[in-house]
Each structure stands twice: as C-alpha cells, then as structure tokens.
Amino acid sequence: MQTVASTNNAPRKRWLRFALQALLRPRPVWRWVERGAWTTFFLLALFFLTVRHAVLPNVERYRSEIVAAATQGLGMRIEVNAIRADWRGLRPHIELNDLRVYDAQNHEALRIPSVTAVISLRSLLVRELRLQSLQVDGLRLQVRRDAQGRIIVAGIVLENTAADHGSLTDWVLAQREFRVSNAEIEWVDELRRAPALRLRDLNFRMTNAGEGHRVQGAREEH
C-alpha cells in the first residue's frame, strides 16, 4: 500500500517542481522590472546626494532668485536677510532670517525674525510641499479693519468669502506641526476708532496626528 501511495504522489511532485522552476526561471519581463527598480533607486540616491551636498549648502547663492519668485507669486515686496539650509537626519531643514513683507503702500506689513521649515519626504509622493514642521519665531503682525469694514492682514485684504483662502487653510492644516512662539499681534479698528489692542508673548502650537488636530496656545494681553 505504501508503494502505491508513493507512485500516485509522483506526478503531483513533478508538476509542483515544474511550476516552481517556471516561476523562478528568469524572464525578460522580470529582468526589465529589476533593471527599472535599480535605475529608480540610483536616480533617487543621486537626487538626494545632489540636494544634500550641492544645493542646500549653497542655497544662499540663490536668495535673490528665491525672493524674486516669492515676490512675484505673492504680488508683494518681500525681503529676506539670509537663507540657510542643511540636511539633518533624513530631512532637509531651511531657515529664513529677518523675513519682511511690504504692503501696496510700501509699508512693512509683516516681520518674522526667524522661520524654520523641516521638509517632509512625503512631498515627493504627493507632489506638493509638505512640512514635517514649520516654526515661526518673533512674529510681528498687524490686523486692521479699515473705515469701509474690510479686514486687512499683513497688507492683504481678506474677502468676505472663505473660498478664496480655502486652499491656503487646507495646506496649513495638512502639515504635521505648525508652531508660533514669542509673537506680537496688533489689532487696529479704524471703523470703530477704538484704541489699538496688542497681544504679546503669544505662543501657539498645532499638531496633526492624521485623525485630528491638537491645538495649544497662550497669550498675555496688554
């Protein structure tokens, strides 16, 4: 009986061996897939090495071009005293020093002594700038309501509809961490002709855990 069972299993074993050999046998398609994977790997490695050792250490050389592009995109004059960038761990860090934004009357509407951004590598996957963290230190901002009732923030007139600013809000909410420290915000109400209200030593932190946002903040009123 044992001999018969062994004889009956022989064709099944041969078929299984044939299937495994056919599956593992090198094929042109698999060779192309393997070559494509290795090519992609080396291109990404070359890209990261170029960014880390060639672009980031010399980002200050492109400060004028970066500022010009930002000025054109925002439609307001922007000045940046210095730009520094380096690679820490697995993420690039970019720091802007003494960022100033001017309104249409060429008055300083926004000043930030220091802005530090940590870029997330997810930017390559979603094809959109994503930040691991964005930290703003020493923000000086004026929010004003003019005699016509319009709200003006940093020289930008906000429309009555929120749809125009939905994309910016969505982008901020999509970041992992947004932090403001040692900020000062001035509220000027020209419509009511009320005294200016200043909020100093304002600290704010918002973290995005994926399922929701956590907000922490503190302020002192003067």
Number of strands: 10
Q: Give the count of structural domains.
A: 2
Over the alpha carbons, how many angstroms does the gyration radius reach?
A: 29 Å
Largest sheet: 10 strands, mixed
Strand-residue proportion? 35-45%
Shape: elongated
Strand/helix succession: HHHEEEHEEEEHEEE
Structural class: alpha+beta
**Between the first and last Cα atoms, what is the distance in angstroms?**
98 Å
Q: What is the number of helices?
A: 5
Task: Give the proportion of residues in helices.
Answer: 25-40%
Integer average pLDDT? 76
Characterization of the model:
This protein has helices at residues 2-24, 28-55, 63-74, 123-126, 166-174, and strands at residues 78-88, 91-102, 108-119, 131-137, 140-145, 151-153, 156-158, 177-189, 197-208, 213-221. Strand 9 and strand 10 (213-221) form a beta hairpin. The protein has five helices and ten strands, in the order αααβββαββββαβββ. Strands 1, 2, 3, 4, 5, 6, 7, 8, 9 and 10 form a ten-stranded mixed β-sheet that branches. By secondary structure, it is of the alpha+beta class. It starts with a helix and ends with a strand. The chain has two domains: 2-51, no CATH class; 65-221, no CATH class.
